[in-house]
Amino acid sequence: MNVLFDTNVILDVLLEREPFLDPAAKLFALVDNGRIKGSLCATTVTTVFYIAAKDFGQRRARDQVHALLGLFEVAPVDRDVLDGALDVDFADYEDAVLHESARAIGATAIVTRDRRDFANSAIPALDPQELLAAIATSA
Questions:
Q1: Was domain 2-138 assigned CATH 3.90.1150.10?
Q2: Per-domain residue ranges for the chain?
Q3: 40, 47, 120, 128 — which has fewest CB within 10 A?
Q4: Rounded distance between C-alpha atoms, residue 92 and residue 58, angstroms
Q5: Where are the beta strands (DSSP E) in 1-139?
Q6: 119, 138, 96, 127: which is closest to 26 by C-alpha?
Q7: pTM for the full predicted model
C-alpha cells in the first residue's frame, strides 16, 4: 500500500498533538517497519520545516526534516502537478496539489484528518483510524 500523508498527520506526530498523536504515530511505525510505503508531498516538507522552525528553532526543525526524509519517500511537485491541481474540483489549491502529487506517484490512499477536503478525490482519502483498520483487515 502506497500512502501519501497529509501535512496535518505529520504535524500531529512532530507537535505531539493530542488526541491525534497515537494513530498517527502508529502509521509512522508501519512506514518504518515496511508494512506500508509512506510518501510526503514536497510542499509538506517545506511547510513542516517552516512550522517546526517557528515552534522549536532551526536546528530542531532541520533534525526533524532529516528524520522525515529518512523515513518517507517524497512525491514531486512539478509543472504537471501544479497544472493538474488547477483543473480538479477542490476548494483548496494546496489540497489539490497534494492530490495531484499523490496521483503522480500512484498512491493508493491519502491519509488525512480533513477527509471532507478530499471529497472529490480520485484516490481514497482515509483518516488515520480508518487507515489503521484497513491495514489490520488486510493482514
A1: no
A2: 2-138
A3: 120
A4: 29
A5: 2-5, 37-41, 73-75, 109-111, 125-126
A6: 127
A7: 0.95
